[in-house]
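Q: How would the structure tokens look for this protein?
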Amino acid sequence: MRYVSTRSESGDPGLPFCDILLQGLAPDGGLYMPLQYPSIDPHTLEVWRTLLTEHGYAAVAFEVLRLFADDIPEADLRGICERAYATEVFGDPVVPVTEMEGGLWLAHLSNGPTAAFKDMAMQLLGQLFEYELSRRGQVLNILGATSGDTGSAAEYAMLGRHGITVFMLSPQGRMSPFQQAQMFSLNDPRIVNLAVDGVFDDCQDLVKEVNADASFKVRHSLGAVNSINWARVVAQVVYYVVGYLRVTAETGGVIDVSVPTGNFGNICAAHIARQMGLPLGQLVLATNENNVLDEFFRTGVYRVRSSAEETSSPSMDISKASNFERFIFDLFGRDGARVRSIFAADLPGSGAVDLSGTPEFAAIAQRYGIVSGSSSHADRLATIAQVADHDGYVLDPHTADAVKVGRHYARPGSRCWSPKPHCR
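A: Here is the predicted structure in token form.
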């Protein structure tokens, strides 16, 4: 499997997985994508269902990841998956599901070390980084940005790993006290927290600007743990596969998913799983008041805000969604020049997308199954109260956003599952 930038020239032969693992952002400022998605057929899914039953999450993670990381020897990759998804890290089973009222299921992604869904990818990323740096005899300085959950999950995943130092930018005063305590209480010289006077988008812009300086990046051995790193996204594909297998254990068929998202990373993984052939129906994109993505999927206009609004689901307080570029790359038929004309930072109006009235926008719902909606503070409170009354279960506010929007799009007789990203 080879990978190219979303802004690459036609005919680019691409790079292997382990090279892009350590790079994070591509030198041209784009995000890495595989030259093509591997396919999952019904027989393969049934084989994986048996593997999940008999050997657990790590066995399925290995099967999915080896499709994307074929430059890692299989025995080594299997060991990486087994260490990353050990039951002592995530409990047993890893990613259980709970059936709720009206055909809704919750996939529990918050059972890791920091009680955030980012643990599902970060624990794997920590193992992959340490493995590849050891093979190459190199060190890595990770520069990341967080709205809360990425930071703590990354720091706990990288803590104590040989050859890795983490520099994490976070918006001052914009994280929950729990997230702030998790990050700022780590007393290790290789974990450096930097509070930025601004919002998450400012932190993310700084990371991208530094990564765009190719010589500086090489000179200081910079890497990334944000979902600009492809390994983060592909690790999330795994839990969509496992969630599907668990929900459909007795009946099979197609299910819808409702995903709370701010940076388009989580639902980007669902999009990729669907493109691979996982039987997902609607992909319901749920935002909070920072509804840049919802606006695009309703109107065809992607309009970055000057600043993100502070809300009660703070990990989604993002007004510029990095992984949106990956979706546009697919939408434009993997035309890197066309993507570059929109997103390259040195072009006038970079990042603005207006596809209203175009064939591409008209085809989104049918071709990719993506629909969207937004949720407010009042919606979150009402959804949390309603689920607590009917199911005896207390949702976190991010999941409440997904449940609220998912129920809006619920189809008669359909099943839907929503990842539960936080347990705070």
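The radius of gyration is 20 Å.

The longest strand covers residues 164-171.

Upvote if useful.
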